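pinned: reference chain
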Amino acid sequence: MKINDKALDFTLLNQNGEEVTLSDYLGTEVVLFFYPKNFTPGCTAQVCSYRDNSKEFEKLNIKVIGISKDTVESHKKFESKYSLSFDTLADTTGEVIEKYGVNGLILSNRTTFILDKDHIITDIFEKTDPKTDSDRVLEVLRKKRA
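pinned: its structure tokens
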């Protein structure tokens, strides 16, 4: 996937075992971030930074979705432990990770996509710093609105 591509639609299960389909959010900007694995230091820092900035994303009416190869059960434990306020999706087969071109040797690469209301990819951040990813994404989104 590259900038100006239409984001590929998908349906995955969230931390509650509910189906989440990307196209259900057409008309809403989406931040889609792929991360390698729940409960690792970098991924925990990244996911918690999105949690800590969740009110800012809500003010901008932006849907945040995290995706990893972890199971629904792992995502549920992760959500419960860190009080997450957004969906984390289980791509256990790696199909979506592969379609988005963020597959690493074993896990997904840490990559973030910003989708506009039509789900056109406007920005891609590859090999993001887990501690500053959500801050950088918010900065870009605020500049677009200025």
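why pinned: The longest helix spans residues 133-145. The mean pLDDT is 93.
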